[in-house]
Amino acid sequence: MFIIILCTVLGLAHLYVWKRLIKDTTGPGRTRTVLTAAFLTMAAMLAMALLGPRLTGLDESAWLAWPGYLWFAMVGYLLLALLLVEPIRLMLRGWVRRGEKTAPGEPTEPGTAADAAPPSGALNRRVFLARTSAAAAGVAATGLVGYGAATALGPPNVLQVPIRLNRLDQAFNGFRIAVVSDIHLGPLLGRSHTERIVEMINGTDADLVAIVGDLVDGTVDKLGHAAEPLQDLVSREGSFFVTGNHEYFVPDTMPWLRELDRLGVTPLRNENTMIRRGAAALHLAGVNDLAGEEHGDPPDYDRALAGIDPRNPTVLLAHQPVMVEQSAARGVDLQLSGHTHGGQTWPFQYIVEAVQPSLAGLSTHQDTQLYVSRGAGFWGPPVRVGAPPDITVLTLNANR
Predict the structure, then answer these.
(1) Which pLDDT does position 59 carry in this prediction?
(2) Rounded to whole angstroms, what are the CA distances from 369 to 280, 288, 313, 353, 391?
(3) Which residues in the chain show pLDDT less than 50?
(4) What is the third-level CATH fold of 157-398?
């Protein structure tokens, strides 16, 4: 159903953009034909990038994904820009109509030559407005996509966020958790992406590394080489991982969990572990993503939090922020999440905010604090506008 809705929306968007950019700005002939052919080629590349792997079973290739997904962003911003100039077009209708008035003595009956070919002044006004609108939309869309691509493909920001926990022993004051999410290894992001992230995390001198889901968009056979640099992560208490929804887009999630364990990244599958500082303790727990429900691998909070000492604070890794409702009901002190990408491309964040309790950053839900990372990668268009990628270092301190 999602694919049907997406294809319908994209089809209508392409039709509108083609009309405004090509049909309204050119007359019948070679120019319109060539531009239409180029437009349809880009639309076809987007369709293949989105649907090709699902329809053919073949793996998504970079040569197809790059132009296809960049066009995805481009057509989205062209649509938005053209819609924004529609009110101007409406306001100038009178000006266009005045130019359409025929000169004295010219025939005006339907079917006459004047009816078939408007006076040159009228044609110039209508085409001038269409071309000006198209040019403005093109410049705006190109600028936004260019800026967004540079942001998405550039290094993530390293954010420093202090957090106070009520039950934290002072022995844990200054304990540093490096949080990264939504790395999205796939046809557009490979081994060099992982290497940069590992280098940046190691530079934070973290006590613990938390990878909160959506690490990969493909199988171990295809992306194992890209994930290998994770074995070079350095922290005093180790690296931990919970599944995101994208880990369930592959036929079997287990090969990735075994591969991560081999690389020294410990999956927390509805389970917890204890971090100690002398006699003091901190519980680290993790739950499977909600998408696991459809694959017989659902989140199980009771199992994840089994055996936890209520005198000690609990930090829970859960991919989706919406899972904080269950965390708060069970007295979790801090939940670490990703999933939202901070909205990734403006104005998409308004849709994300409607379905998630937090878009990014630190918030409080009942007595549970929630931190949401914008993620270090991207999904779909290699573009981020208004939502730069990040790696966050959380510094814990006792709230007393």
Answers:
(1) 57
(2) 21, 19, 12, 18, 18
(3) 56-57, 103-118, 121-122
(4) Purple Acid Phosphatase; chain A, domain 2 (3.60.21)
